[in-house]
TrEMBL record:
The keyword Oxidoreductase applies. The active site is at residue 54. Residues 177-300 form the Quinate/shikimate 5-dehydrogenase/glutamyl-tRNA reductase domain. The keyword Iron-sulfur does not apply. Possesses an unusual extended V-shaped dimeric structure with each monomer consisting of three distinct domains arranged along a curved 'spinal' alpha-helix. The N-terminal catalytic domain specifically recognizes the glutamate moiety of the substrate. The second domain is the NADPH-binding domain, and the third C-terminal domain is responsible for dimerization. Catalyzes the NADPH-dependent reduction of glutamyl-tRNA(Glu) to glutamate 1-semialdehyde (GSA). This is Glutamyl-tRNA reductase. It comes from Brachybacterium phenoliresistens. Homodimer. Pathway: Porphyrin-containing compound metabolism; protoporphyrin-IX biosynthesis; 5-aminolevulinate from L-glutamyl-tRNA(Glu): step 1/2. The record marks 103 as: Important for activity. Belongs to the glutamyl-tRNA reductase family. PANTHER family: GLUTAMYL-TRNA REDUCTASE. The lineage of its organism: Bacteria, Bacillati, Actinomycetota, Actinomycetes, Micrococcales. InterPro entries: 4pyrrol_synth_GluRdtase, 4pyrrol_synth_GluRdtase_dimer, 4pyrrol_synth_GluRdtase_N, GluRdtase_dimer_dom_sf, GluRdtase_N_sf, NAD(P)-bd_dom_sf, Shikm_DH/Glu-tRNA_Rdtase.
Length: 510
């Protein structure tokens, strides 16, 4: 069965996602390790693809058993992030089958992005899928799912461009920066980092005619990067001076806190685009006079269905793609039945031909065998075509049951849909912590009590989360391993009154 778990910007603060996605690159291998440790039982998963981007962590799996499958994922994420299993379960949502298909198609098309319609997400999903396939982690089910998602994402981009209309998130961010600065002409720009976002940023700045672009990287790769892209590198020891002179800073290294308030105390008005999930900024930078910070959350764009007709068309295309995937899987369900029938008929024919060869000459036997094979091919064609039509019309289960009744061969796969009866949301997704055995600690359980105080049921408060998730965390969050971290004590009332303070509190905890 197709199962997925997701933790996204739709229901989590970006700071929480930051903690969850630490070392997410090793998650595919760790899932395999967890399965290997449980080798005494039948494997819960046949294949998996991990999709990790700047605003989501999702795992798509071909599962034999629902509960055991999601439990493997929770354990693996707990190991890679350094967070407890209970907290990991609180962060994720899960779904099976149709809602999973629809969600992946939306994600790949850019309709679930912070900047709706942005172009990078499709490439990121494809890269993660190709990596999983190269490692032998995918199955026919997952291959079909992702290949169709890519095909329909291309249709959405061509036939119904929405929001950013296939442009990069960096391009949209620079649009906002241009509006805030009254244009980019003559502005001095500093780019922090040499990764994908830095490459996109430099290319977009060059396209817009910005001439003064400096690049800095703590890894030492800035000179080579600058030479390749026709810009200048910040000289050794020159970062503070470059910050003082910059009108616009693109912070996109994702290496953790690397820019501090004291570096901009003498700077003039500065706009910083904080484009990495693992923020490059000390949280107090947001409070520095003359410095304005735009983060990923500030770039989120919301579309009104009525105001964006293309979105309606895009959703119709995605619905068509999801229907095609369901039809394909229904047809695949009858394939084993047809294979079993062909095998049984071929065995009978082989036995009869072998008997014939004992009683007749080879020439006669060869002629009879050719005739038998032709007759069997014609006889089998009609049932096979009828089976496919029945499956395409949603009658695969009835066909498989009838096949078992008539021929006495059980070809149904043993896959348990154990999530039946669980409470799901309107989109078919459910909170993952409600699908696994309850072992939630007192601190973790207290997070769900936010509901009774009026907070959204799916939201986690950053400050409360930081105090729990970052305490004795084995993952390095910029303060050394096994550091005991305590977020500043801030009254819950002030959090409710000033939601804008929440990212800073999480940042201080980081």
């Amino acid at each position: 069965m197709l199962v997925a778990v997701r933790a996204t910007h739709d229901h989590l603060d970006l700071g929480v996602l930051d903690a969850l996605t630490r070392d997410a690159g090793s998650l595919p291998a760790v899932i395999g390790e967890v399965l290997a440790e449980r080798a005494d039982a039948e494997p819960a998963l046949d294949g998996w693809v991990v999709v990790s981007t700047c605003n989501r962590l999702e795992v798509y799996v071909d599962a034999r058993r629902f509960h055991d499958g999601v439990d493997v994922i929770v354990e693996a994420v707990s190991r890679t992030s350094g967070m407890s299993r209970d907290l990991v379960a609180l962060c994720f949502e899960t779904a099976m089958d149709a809602p999973v298909t629809h969600h992946l198609f939306e994600v790949t098309s850019g309709l679930r992005s912070l900047v709706i319609g942005e172009a990078e997400i499709g490439g990121q999903v494809r890269s993660d899928f190709e990596a999983a396939r190269a490692e032998g982690l995918t199955t026919t089910l997952l291959n079909d799912l992702f290949q169709l998602a890519f095909r329909y994402a291309k249709r959405v981009a061509t036939e119904a461009p929405v929001g950013a209309a296939g442009r990069s998130g960096v391009a949209v961010a620079l649009d906002r920066a241009s509006q805030a600065l009254g244009g980019l002409g003559g502005r001095r720009v500093l780019v922090i980092g040499t990764g994908a976002y830095a490459r996109l940023g430099v290319a977009e700045l060059t396209r817009r005619g910005v001439r003064s672009v400096l690049v800095h990287s703590g890894s030492g790769r800035a000179p080579a990067f600058a030479e390749r892209h026709g810009v200048a590198a910040v000289p050794a020891g020159g970062l503070d001076a470059a910050l003082r002179e910059a009108d616009l800073v693109l912070a996109c290294s994702g290496r953790g806190t690397s820019l501090f308030p004291e570096q901009l105390l003498e700077a003039g008005p500065t706009l910083i685009l904080d484009l990495a999930l693992h923020s490059d900024l000390h949280p107090l930078l947001r409070h520095l006079q003359g410095v304005r910070v735009m983060g990923l959350a500030d770039l989120a764009s919301q579309l009104d269905d009525a105001a964006e007709p293309a979105l309606v068309t895009a959703q119709a295309i995605i619905a068509e793609g999801a229907a095609e995937f369901r039809s394909r899987q229904q047809v695949r369900r009858v394939d084993p039945a047809m294979a079993a029938m062909r095998h049984a008929v071929a065995e009978s024919a082989d036995a009869e031909i072998a008997r014939l060869r004992r009683d007749t000459s080879d020439d006669v036997a060869d002629q009879v065998e050719r005739s038998i094979r032709k007759i069997l091919a014609k006889v089998m064609h009609s049932p096979a075509a009828r089976a496919r039509r029945l499956a395409e019309n949603g009658h695969a289960d009835e066909y498989v049951e009838a096949f078992h009744t008539i021929f006495g061969i059980d070809i149904s796969a043993h896959r348990e849909g154990e999530a039946d009866g669980q409470e799901t949301g309107p989109d078919g997704w459910m909170r993952l912590d409600r699908t696994i055995p309850p072992r939630i600690s007192e601190d973790a359980a207290s997070l769900t009590a936010l509901d009774s105080r009026g907070a959204p049921a799916t939201a986690l408060a950053s400050a409360r989360y930081a105090r729990i998730a970052m305490t004795a965390c084995p993952v390095d969050h910029g303060m050394g391993r096994h550091a005991s971290v305590e977020a500043p004590a801030v009254p819950e009332a002030s959090l409710a009154a000033d939601p804008a303070a929440r990212p800073e509190i999480l940042g201080a905890a980081r």
